[in-house]
Design a protein that fits this description.
Elements lengths: L2 H23 L1 H4 L1 H6 L4 H9 L3 H24 L8 H17 L1 H7 L5 H35 L6
Helix pairs in contact: 1-5, 1-8, 4-5, 5-6, 6-8
């Protein structure tokens, strides 16, 4: 795989993650209707309606996790300094995103109708996961070198 494809894949995945972080971080400002639109759990929607901390804290944490995904993707591209555990993080991130993207398949088989939102969300998750995975594969040798340089063996 070319370095260009790997870098483009990581850029797309990081952009998706940054967008996801943003929509989660603005949720508390937009209110309970936004939580409901994003298919947040009922407890988070109720929290937003009642003005309690559960909904906003959950949105902040999920947004933070998505932001971290973007940081690891940008680190692998070389846009940011090398972050420790970038390879391991991208393996986990890819797996989670791809699993979330593919989880719609059993629902399509089992349920008579699946909402358009869920189909679109699953497709976006899958694209992000594929982007992180392709980027990881394409940058693995460089990331391995950076990991070795960051943690040299045999030096005391």
């Amino acid at each position: 795989m070319s370095k260009r494809v790997a870098h483009l894949s990581l850029l797309i995945a990081a952009a998706i993650a940054l967008f996801g972080a943003g929509i989660h971080w603005i949720a508390p400002l937009l209110g309970s209707d936004w939580y409901a639109f994003l298919h947040a759990p009922a407890a988070a929607v109720a929290s937003a309606r009642n003005g309690t901390a559960f909904g906003p804290m959950g949105a902040f944490v999920i947004g933070g996790l998505m932001f971290a995904c973007a940081l690891f993707g940008l680190s692998a591209r070389g846009d940011l300094r090398y972050l420790p555990f970038t390879r391991a993080a991208l393996v986990v991130i890819s797996f989670i995103c791809l699993t979330r993207g593919l989880i719609i398949i059993p629902y399509i088989v089992i349920l008579p109708s699946v909402e358009s939102f869920e189909l679109v969300a699953s497709a976006i998750w899958f694209v992000a996961g594929a982007g992180f995975l392709l980027g990881l594969i394409g940058t693995w040798p460089v990331l391995s070198e950076k990991a070795r340089a960051a943690h040299p063996v045999g030096t005391s």
